[in-house]
Every structure is written in structure tokens, then in C-alpha cells.
Specification:
6 helices, globular, iron, vitamin c, single chain, 4-stranded antiparallel sheet, phytanoyl-CoA dioxygenase activity, alpha+beta, 21% helix, 8-stranded antiparallel sheet, oxidoreductase
Length: 276
């Protein structure tokens, strides 16, 4: 309630994390493909020759149809905390495994400070929470999460692509107007540590200055009682426009809203599906 985030040490077992890592490596080798899953590459890697291994992939999104990775979203020790925010009926709305690459000198491995609510067409914000688990030791050197405590009590800011000379990755929007002097906390974490945070909390991550890849797995949950909103005419319209462009390209769909995209990929993990 005070800071907008809570860090729980050693919540996910080494055995589970090794399973997720092994499945991620299979996806990178293109041995595993499943409907709806999005495999992304860093903007600098995307321009280089493609080799099918973990060095080519910066993020896997929407893994809800992959049982080995989706196991993360249903872990009882995670849902125990999630339920404190959502109540007993819990939907998994957005899934990611992040493989932050070593920075190629262009600083593109950074993630601009942003609020996750910018991407979500459902409310209320207080019934949405992200669980984000370190898959290895994460520190300032390899680009840990940076949070601005207390910013979750504010409003949703306008977001846009930052003007970075090295380029910026697709959908990596940043907050336009926030106080750069606001105190920051660098969340250094050990393997298995999990942070839960509010969708209005301003956060981002630094660049990876090491030679290794920094891995984390995460899921955004929402109460099944949340309701959809129309983002037309709001600051979220730019995110919807981009989702529509991706859907048109990927699925040849030209009439899909942000709401449709989330209704399609949302999955019940506990209780009953009500309005999401």
C-alpha cells in the first residue's frame, strides 16, 4: 500500500526455474511452437544474422498455451500472494519470459520507465498485480528492475517511445512526464526471489553491462471481476493502435480491439471466470 511493490525472497524453487529455463531453450531452438506465443528479438539483434538459440531471443510473450511455462502462473505460493490483491477469482492476463541480452553498446537493452496499466484495457487498477521472478541473480550490472516507490498512488501518465539514438524495442513505451528526481530503488534479487507490484507503479530496468543474459519470468494477474474499458480517445490509444497493427500482420485480422486481444489470451488460474 505504501510503496506499490513487495519483494518476497526465495519464493520459486530452483527445480521449477530450471524447468522454465529448459523450456525457454527449446523455444529458442524452435523445437517448441504454440499458438499465440510471440518470440521477440532485441532491436540490435534483429538486424543481425538470425541464429536459433537463446542469443537471438530477448523475450517470449503470451505463453499461455505452453503448459511447461504456464505452470509458473498457477504456482500455489504465487497465487497465495496474488489473491491478496485480486480476490479468489484470478485470471492470468499477460505472460512473459524476459531474456535481457548483453547490451551491444547502443543501450537498447534498457527498458524505459513506464506503467504497465498503459497496456491494459481493464480496471480497476487496484485489482491487477504483476508477479516477476528472477531466474538467476539479478543486480545493477545485468539490468535489474528499478522502481519509483509510491508512484502507484498517482494517475496513468501519457506514454510514448523515448527518443534513444540506438533505437528502441517495439512496445517499449516510456512515461512522458514524471519527476526524474523521485527516489529510485534498484531491486537486486537472487534466483527464485519474486516481486509483486501495482500496475501504476513507475518502473523500468537498466542496461545489461555483462556478457550473460538476464532472465526473469512474469505474469500479470487480474481479478476475474474486473471490467473492460474502451481506450479510444485516451492516452492508451497508441498501444491499441500498435496491437491492431500486429494482429493485422500476424493473423490477418483488421477488426480487433485491445479488449479482444486480452479476452482471447486471458486464462483462468483460480476460481471462476466472471467478466474478463
Amino acid at each position: 500500500e505504501e510503496n506499490g511493490f513487495i519483494l518476497i525472497k526465495n519464493l520459486v524453487s530452483e527445480e521449477d526455474i530450471n524447468r522454465f529455463r529448459s523450456e525457454f531453450e527449446r523455444i529458442c531452438r524452435q523445437e517448441e511452437k504454440c499458438p499465440g506465443m510471440v518470440v521477440m528479438r532485441d532491436v540490435t539483434i534483429a538486424k543481425s544474422e538470425f541464429i536459433p538459440n537463446e542469443k537471438a531471443v530477448s523475450k517470449v510473450q503470451d505463453f499461455q498455451e505452453n503448459p511447461a511455462l504456464f505452470r509458473y502462473c498457477a504456482l500455489p505460493q504465487i497465487l497465495k500472494y496474488v489473491e491478496c490483491f485480486t480476490g479468489p477469482n484470478i485470471m492470468a492476463m499477460h505472460t512473459m519470459l524476459i531474456n535481457k541480452p548483453p547490451d551491444a553498446g547502443k543501450k537498447t537493452s534498457r527498458h524505459p520507465v513506464h506503467q504497465d496499466l498503459h497496456y491494459f484495457p481493464f480496471r480497476p487498477a487496484d485489482r491487477i498485480v504483476c508477479a516477476w521472478t528472477a531466474m538467476e541473480k539479478i543486480n545493477r550490472q545485468n539490468g535489474c528492475l528499478v522502481v519509483l516507490p509510491g508512484t502507484h498512488t498517482g494517475t496513468l501518465h501519457e506514454h510514448d517511445y523515448p527518443e534513444w539514438e540506438g533505437g528502441v524495442n517495439k512496445m517499449y513505451y516510456g512515461v512522458r512526464d514524471y519527476d526524474p528526481q523521485h527516489p529510485r530503488v534498484h531491486l537486486e534479487m537472487e534466483k527464485g526471489d519474486t516481486v509483486f507490484f501495482h500496475p501504476l507503479l513507475i518502473h523500468g530496468s537498466g542496461m545489461n553491462k555483462t556478457q550473460g543474459f538476464r532472465k526473469a519470468i512474469s505474469c500479470h494477474y487480474a481479478s476475474a471481476e474486473c471490467y473492460y474499458i474502451d481506450v479510444k480517445g485516451t492516452t492508451q490509444e497508441n498501444a491499441e493502435k500498435e496491437v491492431l497493427e500486429i494482429a493485422a500482420r500476424k493473423y490477418s485480422l483488421d477488426d480487433i480491439s485491445l479488449k479482444d486481444a486480452f479476452a482471447f489470451r486471458g486464462r483462468l488460474v483460480q476460481g471462476e471466470r466472471i467478466s474478463l
